[in-house]
Amino acid sequence: MKISIVTPTYNREALLPRLYDSIVDNSHDEIKIEWLIMDDGSTDNTKVLIDTWREENKIEMKYFFQENQGKMAAINHIIKETTGDLIVECDSDDYFSKNAFEIIQRTWEENKEVKDCYAMCFLKYNQDNQNMGNAFKKKKTTMFDLYFKEGENGEKALVFFGSIRKRYCYELQKKEKFVTEASMYYKMDLTYQILCINEPIMICEYQEEGYSNHIEKQFKENPYGYYEYFKEILKRDFKGVKFSKRLYVIKHYILFGYLTKQYQSKPIKNWLNKVLYYILLVPGLVKSSLWAK
User: Do 65 and 193 have their domain in common?
Assistant: First the structure.
């Protein structure tokens, strides 16, 4: 078994050593690891740091550089270079927990013949050793059902089956630099499921300059990607979807319809969603206008 760890990075020289140490600490002879780093136009000493690690030769590393195009383009470009049976996307502000690779290996050995799943989904903890979401209730589910029907709101750590993951990419719109990861997950959900494992493999620390702490900025700079994301959700069967999630999707569909000047009810398949759309459209457009200002 071989694990490909994929990390997009931009001016994270100060954070990368923690991730590097966690990979080295988790590595041993029975588990093959490759760490692929896509430097998205860093202006700090990221390359010098990585060159030093490559000289140490403790783990297999591959370094790539691109002019700044954003996290999703960085991942799209580097995924093609992976050679592992499994692929893990790990941000530069995340790192692996103790025994993470052993947990991944054991789970893979138990499930490597499974054909209807695209990933193994593990827990992600914060630095206080607290689960960032809820424990899984099912052995198998989809990411869409997990977040829209089963009440999950926190983060999870996905370990993709490599041959399936390489068939997909993050679909960016109109030269935008970001689209939510869920847009790809939900497309994968149409064909496959995820395996759910109630064990942590990753630790997360949100950074002040990170995507999560600047979500409104992401909304304004990438409206077309988000519009397509919510439009695709509204094409789905909403049986079992929580009412609060219906409202969340419709309100955001109106917001990004306003930002992109696309007002379409046709993609909405569910009759209740269509009724809610027309009820919320005018007040939603007014609120969107005020928010945009």
Answer: yes
Q: Is the pTM of this model over 0.90?
A: yes
Distances, alpha carbon 5 to alpha carbons 14, 54, 56, in Å: 19, 15, 18
pLDDT digits (tens, 9 = 90+) for 143-162: 999 999 999 999 999 999 99
Distance CA 10, CA 267 (A): 37
The sign of the dihedral angle between the CA atoms of 84, 85, 91, 94 is negative
d(CA 271, CA 132): 34
The domain that holds 158 is classified in CATH as: 3.90.550.10
Residue 228 domain boundaries: 222-292
Q: In b/e form, how buried is each residue of 93-127, taking b as 16+ CB within 10 angstroms?
A: bbbbbeebbebbbebbeeeeeeeebbbbbbbbbee
244 and 184 assigned to the same domain: no
